[in-house]
Amino acid sequence: MKSAIPFVSTLLALSLGLTACGGSGDGFQLPGATGTALPYELMSKVDNAEKTEIRNGSYGSSMAPHPTREGYFYGLSDRGPNAATEAGRTPSGIIFLTPSYTPRIGLFRLTSEGKAELVDTILLKDPKGRPITGLPNKSFGSTGETPYNLDGSVVSLDPDGDGIKGFDESGLDSEGLVALKDGTFWVSDEYGPHIVHFDATGKEIERINPFAADPRNKAGRVLPAELSTRWPNRGMEGLTITPDGKTLVGIMQSNLYNPTKEVGSINLTRIVTVNIESGAVAQYLYKQDAAGLANSEIVALSTTSFLVIERDTKFYGIDTGTIRKNVYKIDLSNATNVDRSNASLRTGKAELTVSAANGLLVNGKTLELVIKDAGTANNFAAGWSQLAALGIQPVTKTLAYDGIAAQKYPHDKMEGLWVIDANRLGIINDADFMIAPDGVGGVKQKYLYDGKVESNMLYVVKPIAPLF
């Protein structure tokens, strides 16, 4: 990509569909740093001693401003109320408290008091118009997770009617959201990963994933195969589109298990760009501040400049040690395209080869193994130096917002961003339907450090420096 021409605030706002208003004169008010809670409804109560409430309203996996209506924004749910099983369960898997739950997009309106009202819900549907579920895929995008009911039995639901119980080939663990002016949506997920295009009613139009054999992919439209080695439940967590509307940009939540899970946890994640018209792809490396962190959102500022969330899963006031809830401004201009389609990168470098399954290799090793095998000292510095010696540079990053330093951000999962204008940034969290695993095969209520039950909150904060 070429360097972007600087935008003035008004031009950028128009090109991205941002709302730069928010005063009492325009009919709505943006909440401040104290935030506003998104509404919810009680789905059910768990029959345990606590009577844990499952609250339908977790629209915090991603957010996007409505592209034409000021004061409105979209929120995205994930695969539904779920929890990890207890350690040692065989086979390992995920507990689905409501297996029939359909991932959805919520349209919210801000009131003149700065409150968020849910005004519409769009259920995601397969190409036949059937509501999908959040159950895992069996073929194209399997994570190896066994779906369990809360009572320990294996889920028997067959939502896509293919005779394979407990799985849904159109199922999504939806995490990234793009809302377009034509009323359609692009959604990325953590299974395949899949990037799926839905019409205004939520019906699937098309998809892009790493599986060339999947007939749902258009010819020439496929993600790099190595992305299918994503760490289960840590797939394509963030998705955006460039202001010109030509390129989808997704970010993986964590490092790939490329080629196997023996890679473990390192600090290399990947950004992928897809030209919607041609299908051409590129990949860029992102260097996390520490291994095991999560990149849970990406939002475009220009064709090369983006905001990215980098966070841990700790709670302020509950967990100990360093707690990270950061937003970084990144730039791809001087980063290296490491996709195997970039033949010029390999010119004159015998060390660099490519694999159809695992992408760019260095002396036969995947990029992930280069980082791992060089050692963990100084945040994997030796591995990154090896890549730099071959002309491979990650994206540049500058801290744009520190949620802990600025507001003692109380939630574990900062996951959605809304660029309102150069000096205002909306942040939303994933509340996990207000439940958490109890460690023994069940669930418990999810609480914050102040004793309050977790909730989906929208905060509007000021970045460290103007965003553009």
TrEMBL record:
PROSITE patterns: PROKAR_LIPOPROTEIN (PS51257). It comes from the Bacteria. Coiled coil: none annotated. Keywords: Signal. Residues 1-20 form the signal peptide. Pfam families: Phytase-like. Residues 61-433 form the Phytase-like domain. InterPro entries: Phytase-like_dom (IPR027372). PANTHER family: BLR7070 PROTEIN, PHYTASE-LIKE DOMAIN-CONTAINING PROTEIN. This is Esterase-like activity of phytase. It comes from Paenacidovorax caeni.
